[in-house]
Specification:
three-stranded antiparallel beta sheet, 179 residues, mainly alpha
């Protein structure tokens, strides 16, 4: 394999040029790179070393159920590093705290929903009662108007009868002069 530049290796691995430069800075003394002007060239050994460090080939990375990481055609056994354990436990603590907060929020929302449901039920009951009262008042009013109409009709009949009796009792001259 011929010499390869940082950019082509970075594109191949799907990482930035700065990430490749960091790996070049950490090369063991047995491996070296060549510089021509502003361009850095790596031989096949350096490129394969950096590929192993980056752990990706062609940017195609999948994780299996057994903890192995598949990169392109290669399968790399995944191991846990002790340095990540405190970070992992801190991460778990943060997630657990957030879950507790979310649980509290959910329980508060459930209480609010129950309260709103009770208020809605009460409002519906009050509305039903007020509608019944309105119907009763309308019925009462319609009954009173019917009774008033009947009474006024009776009063008219009675008044007509009274006026005819009054006219009969009046004398001839009283009827003429309407006194």
């Amino acid at each position: 394999m011929a010499n390869i530049t940082i950019k082509t290796l970075a594109d191949e691995l799907g990482v930035s040029k700065q990430a490749i430069r960091k790996h070049i800075d950490k090369l063991p003394p047995t491996l070296s790179v060549t510089r021509e002007g502003n361009t850095i060239y790596m031989n096949a050994d350096v490129a394969s070393f950096i590929r192993n460090k980056v752990g990706r080939v062609g940017g195609n990375v999948t994780s299996n159920v057994d903890g192995n990481v598949t990169t392109g055609k290669n399968t790399v056994k995944s191991t846990k590093v002790d340095n990540n354990m405190p970070l992992s436990s801190e991460f778990e603590k943060i997630i657990n705290e957030q879950l507790k907060i979310k649980d509290k929020q959910l329980s508060e929302k459930d209480k609010q929903i129950q309260t709103m449901q009770k208020l809605l039920d009460q409002q519906q009951q009050l509305s039903l009662q007020s509608n019944k009262q309105i119907e009763q008042l309308q019925l009462k009013l319609s009954n009173e108007t019917e009774i008033d109409l009947e009474n006024s009709n009776r009063n008219k009949v009675v008044n007509e009868n009274d006026s005819s009796e009054v006219n009969e009792k009046k004398g001839f001259f009283n009827r003429i002069f309407k006194k």
